[in-house]
Amino acid sequence: MKFSIVQNVLWAASFAANVALLFVLISKRRTREFPVFTAWIGFLSAEMAVLFLIYRWGSVHLYDLIYWSCVVVDFLLQLGVVMEMARIVLRPLEPWLSEARDRFVVSGLLGATVAAGAALLLHPDAKSLLDVWEIRGNLFAGIIIVELFSAMMGAANGLGLQWRSHVMGLGQGLFVWSTVAVLVDALHNVLGGYRWFTAIDNVRVTVWTAAAIYWAVVFWKPERQRNPLSPEMEHYLLGLHRRVKFDLARSEESLSRLRK
Amino acid sequence: MLPAALVFWLIIGILLSRYLYRHIAAWQLYRRDWNDLLSKLQPIPVLAVTAIGDEYLNPTPHQLGPEPVDIWRSLGGLEASGECGAMREF
Questions:
Q1: 0.85 surpassed by complex ipTM
Q2: Spans of all domains in chain B
Q3: Residue A150 is nearest to which of B4, B22, B57, comparing CB atoms?
Q4: Crossing angle (nearest 10°) for helices A197-220 and A165-191
Q5: Which architecture characterizes domain A5-225 according to CATH?
């Protein structure tokens, strides 16, 4: 198992970006609102460090064992991050908005079916059956994340729910990264495990590093405050309120006169 | 193989296009402020409110009352709800 200089540099860069992001999340106390996202970044940082140590001084068998165990945990944490965003965006008040929750669940189930169909449609060209299922599994997981996140955005947009700046920043980074991840996995599915596999995979790592840096900047800044009403609009609203109150009083007066 | 690959890319294309559309809609909604929202307020026709209120307050025997859909239409609600639907996907 040999990695090229480019891969080593990209690995080191993404590790540094993850550690910097983790530092920002903890030092700025974003963990309270985004515990799962923080856990995901912490897990990725630890995973990279452990895999690097095993790569340098451990065995191939141990590397494979840890790598495959981490793939499952990574996927579960990604699902958790989407659910965390759904909790923040679709639950502006304490209880879940039932309409939003129903739409989210139905779209999520449909998305899982589509993801399974797309992943099984082609048979990627790879060295072993395990590699074939790795390529398919990555695409399946990528589409599930995209579909769930898409469903969550659809539910929030349908109800006109507005996002706050931190969750919007997280969403933007996740959107770019997951789109690239699905495209990379789709290309792997079509091209198989030989042609340009490493070069295409490097794009995913580069985009991840950029996303992690972007998140570090977003979470470093405080939550954006909404602009107050403009004086003209405030004047208009106060006038409207006075007029509605006057009309209502007049209607009530007429009604009581009629009843007499 | 080729038709399967075409179907595959079609599915991926549709998924990612919808994903992009929803993301842009969420971003546009995020950029909105109170002024944008309140500038969408429109007056309700007083005559229509009076007519509906009159039918409710002074019912005649064997009167066929207006259906909810007629009430919404006369108040501009159906058109407004259509606009809301469009606005939802900002």
A1: no
A2: 1-31, 34-90
A3: B22
A4: 180
A5: Up-down Bundle (1.20)
